[in-house]
Amino acid sequence: MISPFALLYSYPVIFVEGYFVDFKREFSMKDFNFLWQAWKKMDHNFQAFSQLTGLKCLKNCSHCCEHHEIHVPIFELYPLALKLYQSDQLAAVCEQVEQSMANCPFLSEHQCSIYEWRPSLCRVFGLGKIQHKNQKIFSLCHLIKNNNQDCVKKLEQIEALEELETFSQLHLPLLLHFSPAETEVLPIHLAFQKAAEKIFLYFQFQRHNDEVATKEMTVYTKRT
Ligand code: SF4
User: Fold this and answer.
1) By alpha-carbon position, which residue is closest to atom 1 of ligand 1?
2) Is residue 213 part of a domain?
3) Spacing, Cα 188 to ligand 1 middle (Å)
4) How far is the CA of 205 from the centre of ligand 1 (A)?
5) Is residue 222 in a domain?
6) Is residue 117 part of a domain?
7) For residue 115, how far is its CA from the centre of ligand 1 (angstroms)?
8) Which of 46-50, 55-59, 106-110 has the largest mean confidence?
9) What is the pLDDT of residues 147-193, one digit of tens each?
10) Burial class of 164 by CB neighbour count within 10 A (0 to 12, 13 to 18, 19+)
11) Ligand 1: distance of its center to the CA of 121 in Å?
12) How sure is the predictor about 209, in pLDDT bands with cuts at 50, 70 and 90?
């Protein structure tokens, strides 16, 4: 059976492969703002979906984080890597991540230890509305489905759900914004290591940007 998470990422592959070649791209702090805006929209849609349907993740559930292989694009881990770099924790966390055998190295005692900085995929865990060919379909976690069968049966009748953007609609602008090398989808620990490398090199070779980056990151984190 296809995992709902594999399905979530299946939409852009042909599009991206068909139209883009890899290129060396200048790393910019504006990227964080772009990512941040997309994440906020996803959070908003997730909450609206939950309110309209009555469906939400089960209390203290970390099933998705523990039992699915978590694959994400590299750019999704830039904000986390930058935050860790600026608090001098990047090297230590890279080491921990390298040694972790878990599906997600950021899961700690059934909780997400990077909740504010978690990638897009983690923002729609359990409840996803996706575009599949010409159809919009719901990609729901089986635990949520089994525990809320009445709500699930009524899903098709909730017209307001039509208004909500799908994961594909929200995520595609991000994939188009970042370069193909940065949109490479990898297991989360590898994606984090690549993001950490990029952040590390940015500060090693572009020290003059340090002050600007720190200032912009301060603005960015204050919005959380
Ligand atoms: S980053 Fe957080 S939410 Fe995402 S899989 Fe890991 S622990 Fe779960």
Assistant:
1) 118
2) no
3) 9
4) 31
5) no
6) yes
7) 7
8) 106-110
9) 888 887 777 778 777 778 888 888 999 999 998 899 999 999 999 99
10) middle
11) 9
12) low
| Six-digit token string for 186 | 């990898």
Q: Which 8-state DSSP code applies to residue 131?
A: E
Query: CA-to-CA distance for 141 and 152, rounded, in angstroms?
Result: 11
pTM for the model = 0.78
What is the rounded CA–CA span in Å between residue 114 and residue 39?
14
34's tokens: 């772009």
DSSP 68: S
Task: Determine the atom of ligand 1 nearest the C-alpha atom of 70.
Answer: 5
Site to substitute for ligand 1 among 67, 70, 84, most atoms within 8 A of C-beta: 70
Among 8, 65, 68, 78, which is best to mutate for testing ligand 1, by the most ligand atoms less than 8 A from CB?
65
Rounded-to-integer distance, Cα 106 and Cα 116, Å: 12
Residue 224 lies in a domain: no
The total of structural domains in the chain comes to 1
What's the pLDDT at 90?
95
Which residue among 42, 104, 109 is best mutated to probe the pocket of ligand 1, counting the most ligand atoms within 8 A of its Cβ? 104
Contact predicate 195/183, CB 8 Å = no
Q: Where are the alpha helices (DSSP H) in 108-222?
A: 120-123, 142-147, 149-154, 167-177, 188-205, 210-222
Task: Note down the domain range covering 174.
Answer: 4-208
